[in-house]
Amino acid sequence: MAEFETIVVVGAGVVGLSTVLCIQQYLKPSQSVLLVARDFPSDTSVNYASPWAGAHYRPVPGSSPTSAPLAVNEPAAGIIFLKGVEHLEAPPPEYLDSQSAHNVYSHLDEFRYLSDDEVPAGVKWGVEYGTYVVNSPVYCAHMLRKFILKGGTTKRYTLAHLKEAFSLDTNVKTVINCSGLGFDDPKSFIIRGQTCLVRNPVSATITRQNTDGSWSFCIPRPLDGGTIIGGTKQPHNWDPNASPETRAQLLAKASKWFPFASESGGQFDVIHDIVGRRPAREGGMRIEVEKLENEKQIVHAYGAGGRGFELSHGVAEDTVALMLENGLLKEKAVL
Ligand SMILES: Cc1cc2nc3c(=O)[nH]c(=O)nc-3n(C[C@H](O)[C@H](O)[C@H](O)COP(=O)(O)OP(=O)(O)OC[C@H]3O[C@@H](n4cnc5c(N)ncnc54)[C@H](O)[C@@H]3O)c2cc1C
């Protein structure tokens, strides 16, 4: 009989949670999954990025909206489809090149260019398309619940070193590192984001690029979670406090450019400010296997930066593909 084995996944952010659910489909009867983390979905910490994300899908070359089936099949996941709008005041050359824009946007449902008389004054380039938005804390809690219902176990623990994870159960040969920033990786860095969660509803997600180089956006959170008004992207900025000046600027731009109901009179009903650290990495995410002594292996999956929600399904699938290649899981998915 095969020796019983525990696979330890470190990190309960959107990447770790997506990964444990994917792994559970390929477990051998002799395997189980233990999810170890400092923070879980009911926590809020500036160093735990996932609960702070907007989050919405904006296209980038080569990606696709992979959360779509969940929105249809699992309404409690906190994902909905709605209209996405982009307004750019100073579009970079790649947006003006019609082939390049086509490659990026044409896979989206209901994609179309907006004509000059459909965009607000000052906007040189506008598009709309069908997209999805995620209530990020609800979505993460939903995934955690699914993991537990399928037999997964959890442990709240702060690792001083990743190799500690091999000692957290009796027979651990595989550790998956979904810790966001990794452990002492010199390529990892943070990108501070400040946004503001308000009660005012809005019916579309709108992203506006301003001539001063800043970006403004509003993202409604499904299941009555309010609307995120954003936002800043500040690499290497460690300030954990929300700046009142930044909040005032974000809300002033939002009331000018986004279609909040006229009865709000440009006033916002603020729920709270948000400050979070996007776990970024020079050169992009690290997704690779590291082989250690005594047949132990680490699979790294961290450094998603500002796109963890958009990338999470793909990252989970890539991680599982690496595990299958290395014989760490059963070939055929248990669906
Ligand atoms: C303001 C803001 C807006 C954003 N908007 C979007 C958006 O619209 N779309 C989008 O796709 N993304 C967005 N993001 C980015 C997104 O939030 C991140 O890419 C994503 O949450 C990263 O997920 P993760 O699981 O890698 O990391 P995290 O969510 O940070 O999770 C890391 C996990 O590892 C655990 N951990 C770390 N170190 C240790 C340790 N030593 N011991 C034990 N556990 C440890 C933590 O406790 C946590 O459970 C936004 C982020 C911010 C801050």
TrEMBL record:
Q: Which InterPro entries match?
A: D-amino_acid_oxidase_CS (IPR006181), DAO (IPR023209), FAD-dep_OxRdtase (IPR006076)
Similarity section: Belongs to the DAMOX/DASOX family.
Point out the signal peptide segment.
Answer: none
Biological process GO terms, please? D-amino acid catabolic process
Pfam families registered for this protein in UniProt: DAO (PF01266)
Q: FAD dependent oxidoreductase domain: which residues?
A: 7-321
Cofactor(s) needed by this chain? FAD
Domain of life per record: Eukaryota
Mind listing the UniProt keywords for this protein, alphabetically? FAD, Flavoprotein, Oxidoreductase
- Name-wise, this protein is D-amino-acid oxidase
**Record-level GO cellular component terms:** cytoplasm
Q: Which PROSITE patterns does this chain map to?
A: DAO
Q: Name one GO molecular function term.
A: D-amino-acid oxidase activity
Membrane-spanning segments: none
Report the SUPFAM superfamilies cross-referenced here.
Answer: FAD-linked reductases, C-terminal domain, Nucleotide-binding domain
